[in-house]
Amino acid sequence: MEKASENRTLQQQLARVVSEISNPLFVALPTFLVIALVTAPDVAHAFLWWIIPILGISVAPFLFIWQGVRKGKLTDHHVSQREQRFVPLFFGLTCMLLSFAGLYALHASPILIATVVAVIVACGISLIVTRYWKISLHLVGMAGAVTVFVLLFGPRWLVLSPLVLLVGWARWQVRAHTVLQAIAGTCLAIFVTIATFHLFGIQL
């Protein structure tokens, strides 16, 4: 019994760690950095193109949520309560649109802009769904990132797919989402990313 209890405790600890580092606001950091470095004409442009979406997609939403938690308006930085998610998502969506405008004005690469558009669309759909059901934003972020890498670098990057399963398990383990909510987030991200790249006419 003690061993079983210890195993469950270890699983919970691992699940919490995975949940923390797979926060979509954090996943965006390396994802956009890689895309910018690969598609920009030089390193200076790459970092400029990286900073703009990071400010709008990661930093500003993170600070908004942090302030909400500090003031007691939000329960935690994962915004675990579905009823509390609309305002942070709407704020994040607004920041993403500003990032898109900045990248467009700077003539950023079509692949980078397409990725930002995919994030905006997925966030917009999640905003609507969240009014009625708690879709997994962690899975939207991770599955979206893996899909972009597969489209950008080829099928061999499907090797990252287990990360999606790991995050899904972690979110289920900490009782943040059901299996169906995790699957819905995954499917949404994959479909929106592929469709957006197709609409942009990006042939990789």
TrEMBL record:
Transmembrane segments: 21-40, 46-66, 86-105, 111-130, 137-159, 179-200
Leader sequence residues: none
Keywords linked to the UniProt accession: Membrane, Transmembrane, Transmembrane helix
Transmembrane among keywords: yes
Domain of life the protein comes from: Bacteria
Name of protein: Phosphatidic acid phosphatase type 2/haloperoxidase domain-containing protein
Organism: Dictyobacter aurantiacus
